[in-house]
């Protein structure tokens, strides 16, 4: 190449389109003519960007972002802005916020189960997953403080909490001015009720698990907030396309010879052109156009789901995270189902689950939003609305039993029946007798009745209780599930 040609090429390189577009001034000159869509929340835009780039997402992914995203999730950000989540000034009221009796009686239940298991003198762990404001644990600790043999056996209180904001609220409720320090699994302070350590971690698997530990686990309105997948049974197509990590792939032969298959319900962006005064929702549910990894695996893991596969239009909801948590509960109580893992630990402890959902059927179309104590669409203002779905209690029971040979499951039973068996009416009578004035007496009465009543705004029928305890060959039932208080 001649010197002249070389100079021309060098000039072209310096003036190339790539180099000009790389400069800030040139980037500013490239503006899209498309109108900018206004989103209800910053998180809504983030979710929409993901969907527009990679395609529709599962309900589980949508719920996870809306509830726990560090960039505007409901539980991770609302408290930091001064907006309350729980209580009458929040979006919903839970049982512990209605009456102190709820937490007191759950504490009594733990004591009765400890008594039935031989009154271990040490190693008791009180574990709560999703502890909210800390109100339930505070009431439980005040209650068990009256049972000296049990309270002196408590090694520590463990709280599984992902929200830094809620962790700070819980610390103030349970520990007061005691200092908090960062430790390997999370954070630690000291209980103002019992003087034992209070430890926070983001997942229950991070908690210690020894041969002499006796875990008593409480999960109140925890599972309803865990992500779900939803599936619908449809006719199998003549050829099958599946979604893989590298994109859609068409199979030469269908995945199965079944005339029907499961398709996942996914979240997609609602086009701006389809939004109007009656429907301002930015997202919508639709049936996936092809099979997804989740639709090919999850509905095939249980005979309950397989039985519905022959019926077109059948819809089911599955929560893998819920099943994973309850399996962890079972293994901590009864040991591992894998015989290759050696252990000298004798099954001990218990888990008590209180939540809402059908007693025996598979939940369907239960995803809901809750805002200002009212039900709203789950696609309203992502990040500013609480999301929940019905709990599949039978799936939890099946998961617990399959995870450990050393446990058995009791329930579900209605919350009203459960609390009555623990003596809520007698406790209410005591508190009303001590009430200083008529207003307080009426508040106590209204509170305990709302917890147990089956109709109207009562929680007694909708909410259910389920217990996981050491396997006893059907020789005993825990209190609240047909059993009696140990002598």
TrEMBL record:
What would be an example GO MF term here? Answer: protein-arginine omega-N symmetric methyltransferase activity
InterPro entries this protein is in?
A: NDUFAF7, NDUFAF7_sf, SAM-dependent_MTases_sf
Task: Describe the task this protein carries out.
Answer: Arginine methyltransferase involved in the assembly or stability of mitochondrial NADH:ubiquinone oxidoreductase complex (complex I).
Has UniProt tagged this entry with the keyword Transferase?
yes
- Identify the EC number(s): 2.1.1.320
Q: Which family does it belong to?
A: Belongs to the NDUFAF7 family.
Q: According to its UniProt record, which reaction does this protein catalyse?
A: L-arginyl-[protein] + 2 S-adenosyl-L-methionine = N(omega),N(omega)'-dimethyl-L-arginyl-[protein] + 2 S-adenosyl-L-homocysteine + 2 H(+)
Please name the Pfam families in this protein's record: Methyltransf_28
Task: Offer a single GO CC term for the protein.
Answer: mitochondrion
Is Transferase among this UniProt entry's keywords? yes
Supply the name of the protein: Protein arginine methyltransferase NDUFAF7
Q: What class of enzyme is it?
A: transferase
Q: Which residues form the signal peptide?
A: none
Q: Taking the first listed entry, what is the main subcellular location of this protein, grouped into a coarse class?
A: mitochondrion
PANTHER family documented for this protein: PROTEIN ARGININE METHYLTRANSFERASE NDUFAF7, MITOCHONDRIAL
Q: Which organism is it from?
A: Coccidioides posadasii (strain C735) (Valley fever fungus)
């Amino acid at each position: 190449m001649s010197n002249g040609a070389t100079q021309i090429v060098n000039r072209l390189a310096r003036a190339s389109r790539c180099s000009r577009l790389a400069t800030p001034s040139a980037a500013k000159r490239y503006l899209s003519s498309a109108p900018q869509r206004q989103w209800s929340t910053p998180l809504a835009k983030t979710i929409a960007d993901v969907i527009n780039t990679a395609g529709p997402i599962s309900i589980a992914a949508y719920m996870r972002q809306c509830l726990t995203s560090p960039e505007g999730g409901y539980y991770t950000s609302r408290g930091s802005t001064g907006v309350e989540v729980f209580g009458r000034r929040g979006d919903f009221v839970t049982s512990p916020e209605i009456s102190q009796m709820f937490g007191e009686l759950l504490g009594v239940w733990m004591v009765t189960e400890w008594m039935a298991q031989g009154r271990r003198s040490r190693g008791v762990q009180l574990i709560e997953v999703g502890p909210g404001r800390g109100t339930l644990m505070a009431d439980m600790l005040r209650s068990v403080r009256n049972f000296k043999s049990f309270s002196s056996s408590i090694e520590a209180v463990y709280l599984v909490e992902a929200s830094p904001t809620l962790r700070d609220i819980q610390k103030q409720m349970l520990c007061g001015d005691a200092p908090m320090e960062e430790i390997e699994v999370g954070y630690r302070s000291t209980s103002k009720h019992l003087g034992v350590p209070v430890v926070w971690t983001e997942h229950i698997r991070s908690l210690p698990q020894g041969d002499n530990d006796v875990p008593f686990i409480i999960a109140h309105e925890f599972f309803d907030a865990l992500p779900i997948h939803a599936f619908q049974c449809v006719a199998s197509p003549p050829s099958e396309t599946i979604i893989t990590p590298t994109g859609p792939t068409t199979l030469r032969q269908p995945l199965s010879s079944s005339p029907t298959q499961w398709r996942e319900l996914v979240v997609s962006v609602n086009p701006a052109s389809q939004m109007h005064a009656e429907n301002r929702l930015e997202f919508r549910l639709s049936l996936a156009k092809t099979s997804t990894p989740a639709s090919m695996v999850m509905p095939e893991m249980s005979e309950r789901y397989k039985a519905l596969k022959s019926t077109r239009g059948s819809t089911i909801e599955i929560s893998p995270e819920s099943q994973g948590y309850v399996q962890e509960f079972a293994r901590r109580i009864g040991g591992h189902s894998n015989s290759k893992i050696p252990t000298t630990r004798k099954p001990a402890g218990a888990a008590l689950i209180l939540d809402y959902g059908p007693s025996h059927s598979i939940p369907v179309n239960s995803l809901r939003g809750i805002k200002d104590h009212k039900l709203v669409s789950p696609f309203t203002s992502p990040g500013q609305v609480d999301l929940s779905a019905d709990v599949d209690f039978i799936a939890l029971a099946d998961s617990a039993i399959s995870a450990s040979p050393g446990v058995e499951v009791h329930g579900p039973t209605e919350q009203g029946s459960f609390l009555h068996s623990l003596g809520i009416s007698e406790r209410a009578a005591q508190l009303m007798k001590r009430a200083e004035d008529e207003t307080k007496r009426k508040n106590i009465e209204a509170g305990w009745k709302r917890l147990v009543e089956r109709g109207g705004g009562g929680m007694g029928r909708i909410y259910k209780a389920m217990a996981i305890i050491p396997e006893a060959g059907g020789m005993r039932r825990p209190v609240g599930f047909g059993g009696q208080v140990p002598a």
